[in-house]
Specification:
It is a single chain. By secondary structure, the protein is mostly beta strands. The chain has three domains: 122 residues, Jelly Rolls (Sandwich); 42 residues, no CATH class; 104 residues, Elongation Factor Tu (Ef-tu), domain 3. 5% of the residues lie in helices and 45% in strands. The chain has two helices and 27 strands.
């Protein structure tokens, strides 16, 4: 199991993006303008969207006047870097972003993808020191009928834990799709930390928020809502690493991160054991003399 604490993507770290700000359909806030109730504007300084809750003119900045403006989420450009909400950046193919972390990192993850391919390239100056292209089209076949007639699906998540530790590197992420539109729900970069080996009895579950009512005659009335993935895992960790993992636990209190039970994206359990979310339980059992046993309950944001 590896955990990837997120490196905050600031203006300085997002060197470039093919998504503009304001993007199509977005309108920048303008001072001394009369806005109607429920009007939506963006601020390029905060990279947030705001909805008017009082009609009229107000020169106060939306981020400083919460009685007039309600923050409702990130701009389209920054949606893929906002880990506090389940939001996606939606853009014409190809979507390309260039990140300059400003420090050594060894991991990158992309989640909530709707694309056919992803290319990640790391450069130091003009020299390419790492590049990989992932074909996101996949099809699971257990029979000859599925082999010839089964439908393709696209891989939703990627996690790379082998980026070379160069300082001053620039990372280019390019997503492409034959449909003309790509979506990315999360782009996380940083330094991953090993927190233990996952036992074979890991569980993948979901919190179902759909509502089920019944009429007086017993007929079901279903209101589909989102299901939130969660996993429950038991890990074994060498005694020498316990204090390091305790520090990680403290730093990730109510902080979303990438949690990956497996390193191999081709493993059939990879997607089921990858979560962008928070820990609900992180118990370190010290009963064994040479290894700790960790009970980990994770929930997606």
């Amino acid at each position: 199991m590896r955990v990837l604490p997120p490196l905050e993507i600031t203006d300085a770290r997002l060197t470039s993006s093919t998504v503009t700000e304001p993007d199509t359909g977005e309108a920048a806030w303008v001072a001394a303008t009369s806005y109607a109730l429920d009007a939506v504007v963006i601020r390029t300084t905060t990279h947030k969207k705001y909805q008017s809750i009082i009609a009229g003119v107000d020169a106060g900045l939306p981020e400083n006047t919460p009685l007039r403006w309600l923050e409702i989420g990130p701009t389209n450009k920054y949606a893929m870097f906002d880990l506090l909400r389940n939001s996606q950046t939606v853009a014409p193919s190809p979507l390309t972003v260039v990140l300059t972390p400003g420090k050594r990192i060894n991991a990158l993850a992309l989640v909530g993808l709707e694309a056919q391919s992803a290319t990640i390239t790391m450069r130091v100056g003009a020299t390419v020191v790492y590049t990989v292209t992932k074909n996101l089209n996949s099809r699971q076949t257990a029979t000859w009928t599925q082999y010839f007639f089964g439908e393709f699906r696209t891989q939703k998540n990627i996690a790379l834990f082998d980026l070379p530790l160069f300082s001053g590197a620039a990372i280019t992420v390019t997503l492409t799709s034959t449909t003309g539109t790509v979506k990315c729900g999360g782009c996380v970069v940083g330094t991953s930390v090993f927190i233990g080996e996952v036992e074979h009895d890991a569980e993948s579950d979901a919190l179902n928020f759909s509502k089920i009512d019944r009429t007086v005659s017993g007929t079901a009335i279903l209101q589909p809502r989102r299901s939130v993935p969660k996993t429950q895992q038991t890990l074994f960790l060498d005694k020498a690493l316990v204090n390091q993992v305790r520090d990680v636990r403290e730093s990730l209190n109510a902080v979303p991160a990438i949690w990956s039970g497996l390193d191999d994206p081709d493993d059939g359990y990879f997607d089921a054991l990858l979560i962008l979310g928070i820990y609900k339980q992180f118990t370190i059992n010290l009963a064994y003399p040479s290894a700790a046993k960790i009970s980990l309950l994770l929930e997606e944001i």
